[in-house]
Every structure is written in structure tokens, then in C-alpha cells.
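Exercise 7.
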Amino acid sequence: MNPPIPKIPLGSSGIQSSRLAYGCWRIAGAEGAPEPDNQQKKIGLNAIIAAFEAGFTLFDLADIYGAGWCEIIFGQALQEVPEMREKILIATKCGIRKPDTPAIGAPYRYDFSAEYILDSCDGSLKRMGVDHIDLYMLHRPDFLMDIQEVAKAFSKLQQSGKVSSFGVSNFTPTQVNLLQSALGSRLLVNQVEVHLLDPFTLTDGTLDQCQMNRITPMAWSPLAGGRLDVERFDYGADHELKAKATRLRSIMDPLAEKYRVTWAEIALAWLLKHPAKILPVIGSTQPKRIKMAATATDFEISREEWYSLLEPALGHRLP
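Solution. The predicted structure, written as C-alpha cells, is:
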């Protein structure tokens, strides 16, 4: 087993998480695919175990990932490696409802009704075969969110022992403030998209709020869906994005050579440098890449190197 990845507290709690999380949304295959075959299930199992052996202790899921199959495969991994459960944190999400559920004609939508939150949690617990979830998150903001109703659902889940702590995903700072105003406990995380090709959260107040209120920002797609991987830098017909990538590459190449790592580790190190303690969520299902990502915690880029990457990331000079 590799040396453990350094740990940080989640939000304002004393709960310790590995400095990187493992994201399980790909372990059941492509989004929208039917039930994964045995080969895909094996790939998913091997990826989870590889992440555990590489030192990841926070595993990120959602009820809709793989139409529930990601949670099922994760539960199978827990059965295969029984000692894993007591050494990790399970994070999963609810709130997105697919079309035609529960009845034909129902639209794609978000749902933070108390009934749905409670039912979704029970479904996740059953699929994973566990008795509690360490971190339960609301997946995308429901514009019809009744904060008192959400607070009651959270309270029931916490009092029953089904959930230890809560967070949100893709919330704006004002939405975080709105929900937090009704809760008796602190939200620990806000999972948002942030990477070198889209550093929007640097300027929209999200990371400012996270640092001020001690909320851990979890970065989903920290490598821009694989586009910040040296072997997959393909932007198709998006000429603007390709131009930005070219400018980034001119800075990333010498840094990768200096630290003897790949572009991916430089991109992760850029996120790790931020004082809000961004926690990147790694989504590869290839054990080699999972272990390689863990090495991003072995070095730290300088302030000057961080800013040298920021300008091409923004696409313009700093004022």
C-alpha cells in the first residue's frame, strides 16, 4: 500500500479526509449506459480498491450515478475489502430526478422535498449495504427549495444515525447562506466545478465564502473531464478553448519537467495551493492514473508558478 495521502479536516468539523477524494461517477461506465456488464463492474471494483490502496479516504458518489449502479458497485467493494468501511468516509448526493420518474411525463428536475431527501437516503444506504453515510450532499440547487423543509429532513437523518454530516454541491454563495440560515449544524462542503480551464469560482465569491466560513470546496472535474491530461488534450472544434490550452501548455510543460510529474499533477497542485483548501475529486478508473494523481500532494508549486498559470487560465492579463 502506498504512503497515506495527507489529511485535512472537512469544513469546520474534526472529520479528517484525505487531501484528494475519489469520485465514483464513472465506475459503472458511461453516463446513461444500461446495467454494467461483469467486465465494467470489475473495472469499477478495481478502481475503488486502487484508490483505497493509494491512500484515498473520501469516496464521492450520488444516487443518480450509473442509475444507482455506482452505489451498488461501491457496496460490493466494501464487501470485498471489509476493513475498508471503518477507514473511509462515504459521501453521496441526492436531489436530481430524471425524466419520467416517478411517472411518465415527469420532467427532469431538482427535488429537495423532505420526502424525497429521506427516501433517497434510504435508497443509497440499501444500495451500498451500509448503515450510515458520513457526508450527505444536495446535488444541484432546487429553485423551489423550502429551507425549513430541508432542515427538518436533515434533522431526521442525523437523529436516526443515518447521516453524520451535510454539504451541498453546485450552490452559489447566496444559496449556501440561505440554506445555512435554517440549519442547526454547519454545512461542511460545497462541491463545485473548478479547474484551470474554468477558474470562475476564484471571482464569483464561492472560494471566498468557503475560506471565510470554513467550508471545504470539493472540486469536481479538476482535470476538466480529462482535458488537462497530457495524453488526452483534445478540444475538437472549440478553437477558443484550444488556444487557452496552448497557452497553458507553454507554462505547464516546464513545470511538469521541473517536478517530474505530468500535466495532471500540475493542474491538481494548482488547486491544492489555494488557501480555501480545495479538495479535488479524482474520477479516473485506471489504477495507474489514480495512483499517479496521489503524487500531486508530494510537492507544492510556488506563488509565482501559481500566478503564471492563472493568466492563461483566465485568458487575459491581470489588470
